[in-house]
Design goal:
The protein contains five helices and seven strands; from the N terminus they run E-H-E-H-E-E-H-H-E-E-E-H. It is α/β, with parallel strands linked by helices and 156 residues long. The chain has one domain: P-loop containing nucleotide triphosphate hydrolases (Rossmann fold, 3-Layer(aba) Sandwich). Helix 1 crosses helix 2. The longest helix has 12 residues. The model has no long low-confidence stretch (mean pLDDT 88).
Length: 156
């Protein structure tokens, strides 16, 4: 299977949350999503859309906790932020092996491009921000992530 990519324009935070809600509609335990983008690009806003759509409380950046679990009506949502992780040796302390691929939940990993922590099958979501809004580029890397990427295809 070859990797497939979807690129969509997101006008504002509300559109970013709607993209998160679309992803939420197809999430299954064990799914892994790598979030890539500069500060303020909308990574946490996207996760907030997922959490809200699944009936959980609003998301916030887990920069200081590094790993945060949101309880929702269907699956646990693990929100991991690797921004402040300075050395690869610190990753073991976070318990990522227990979070990424956990069949009871889904893992969203911010700054996932810093370290090789994502499983082979994961959805890479890259967000970029400029004066006109955001661009979301989703690339699937396997069958589970292709199911998620396909949710973002179509009219916006």
């Amino acid at each position: 299977m070859t990797d497939a990519t979807t690129v969509i324009a997101l006008a504002d935070d509300a559109a970013t949350r709607r993209a998160g809600a679309r992803l939420a509609s197809g999430l299954r335990g064990g799914d892994a999503i790598a979030l890539v983008g500069e500060l303020g690009a909308g990574k946490t806003t996207l996760v907030g859309g997922v959490v809200a759509a699944l009936g959980g409380d609003g998301a916030h950046s887990p920069t200081f906790a590094l790993v945060h679990e949101y309880k929702t009506q269907t699956v646990a949502v693990w929100h991991v932020d690797l921004y402040r992780v300075e050395r690869e040796s610190e990753l073991a302390e976070l318990g990522l092996d227990d979070v990424i691929g956990d069949p009871r939940g889904v893992a969203f990993v911010e700054w996932a491009d810093k370290y090789a922590v994502m499983p082979r099958d994961h959805l890479r979501v890259e967000l970029a921000y400029d004066r006109t809004g955001r661009t979301l580029c989703a690339t699937s890397h396997g069958p589970a992530s292709e199911r998620l990427r396909a949710l973002l295809d179509g009219a916006w």
